[in-house]
Design a protein that fits this description.
Blueprint lengths: L5 E5 L5 H11 L4 E5 L6 H8 L7 H17 L4 E5 L6 H9 L3 E6 L19 E3 L2 H7 L2 E2 L20 E8 L4 H13 L5 E6 L3 H10 L10 E2 L5 H9 L1 E6 L10 H8 L3 E4 L9 H4 L2 E3 L6 H4 L12 H7 L1 H11 L12 H7 L1
Parallel strand pairs: 1-2, 1-3, 3-4, 4-5, 5-6, 7-8, 7-10, 8-9, 10-11, 11-12
Length: about 350
């Protein structure tokens, strides 16, 4: 293996970037991870998301300077920026001036987080989970992944007592849509098992002020993130997992991959699910509208055969790592996604 040393920079978001780092290390690549934020306090996250960088400029620049120095000291050959919103062009230019290749991967769309667009002319490899952005900005399409913990080795022996589970952060319009879905299912005698997260109860109350319907979920939310073992065990016991994607994007969420790899059906309104390999498409219930859910839920009672090795690989972190390394020119790229023409058709 060539003398490749990798650094990853991204948010501390449910340890996804850390998982990528561990996968690279398992493949023999020296790799280190850096949190792009100098702090993960609620106030800091809000300030960055609202692009109030001027309030944090000194600490931000100091933090990025420390990361830059450590990367250079480690003799890194490649840096992957993963879903960044803090990293600026100056930081990327500094790395490149030291002969370091910089690559970018996004799991948010430009409609929701567009600060990465100014980095595109400066990076070597660039990719996204968002098909629309890939077509618009000439990015490589790389779908997300599910870690091994979501691979159920005893799929056929699983007892799935819960009909439908929804696990997620109650951002954007999710509370409103979840309320509609619950009402629709209740009329047919079904319930949704809810595992809801929000980073602050105080901020959630503010959200309820603007969207009063969200108050019904106040006592269901928790501010401590669910760990992946907890999520996997819930999915293993569920016939179907409900996915409510962000209205500003069409990319397939990590929940898509985690639910399917666990052996559950995926219930979604996201048409990009139609671009999945055909074996996985048979495990997707695509809704045209929320009123269909109760009538379609009976489909989840069908027996599911074990996932093929090819389908499981498509859903895996291993496949994602191969694709990510390929955009950096560190591995040959293998086609594991569906036809891009088909992808454009559905997005």
């Amino acid at each position: 293996m060539p003398n490749i040393r990798i650094s990853l920079i991204g948010p501390n978001f449910f340890s996804y970037v850390q998982a990528i780092c561990e996968e690279f290390i398992s493949r023999g690549y020296p790799c280190q991870y850096f949190d792009e934020r100098h702090s993960n306090s609620i106030a800091t996250k809000i300030a960055y998301r609202l692009r109030l960088h001027s309030l944090l400029k000194h600490k931000r620049d100091q933090h990025l300077s420390t990361i830059r120095d450590q990367i250079i000291l480690s003799k890194a050959t490649d840096v992957f920026l993963i879903n960044v919103e803090v990293v600026d062009p100056t930081f990327v230019k500094d790395l490149r001036s030291h002969g370091i290749c910089v690559h970018l991967y996004m799991w948010d769309s430009s409609q929701n987080k567009n600060s990465f667009l100014k980095l595109l002319p400066l990076v070597n490899g660039r990719a996204s989970f968002e098909p629309v952005d890939c077509a618009r900005y000439n990015l490589t399409y790389i779908p997300l992944f599910a870690e091994k913990i979501f691979c159920n080795p005893n799929l056929n022996q699983s007892v799935r007592n819960d009909e439908v589970v929804f696990l997620g952060t109650l951002h954007s319009h999710r509370a409103v849509l979840l309320s509609k879905l619950e009402h629709t299912l209740a009329e047919k005698g079904f319930k949704i098992k809810k595992l809801l997260y929000y980073h602050s109860t105080f901020l959630y109350l503010i959200k309820c002020f603007f969207h009063p319907i969200a108050i019904q979920f106040f006592f269901h939310i928790r501010t401590k993130a669910f760990n992946k073992l907890e999520i996997a065990n819930v999915y293993f016991k569920s016939r179907a997992v409900l996915d409510i994607h962000h209205p500003g994007q069409t990319g397939l969420t990590s929940r898509t991959f985690e639910s399917l790899r666990s052996g559950a059906y995926l219930i979604t309104l996201n048409k990009t699910a139609l671009t999945l390999p055909i074996e996985l498409r048979h495990r997707v219930i695509l809704l045209a509208n929320v009123s269909e859910l109760a009538d379609r839920i009976a489909e989840t009672r069908h027996e599911r055969p074990q996932l093929s090795r090819q389908a499981d690989y498509f859903l895996s972190l291993e496949r994602f790592a191969e694709e990510l390394l390929a955009i950096g020119g560190l591995r040959p790229r293998q086609e594991v996604i569906t036809n891009p023409i088909e992808m454009k058709h559905y997005t």
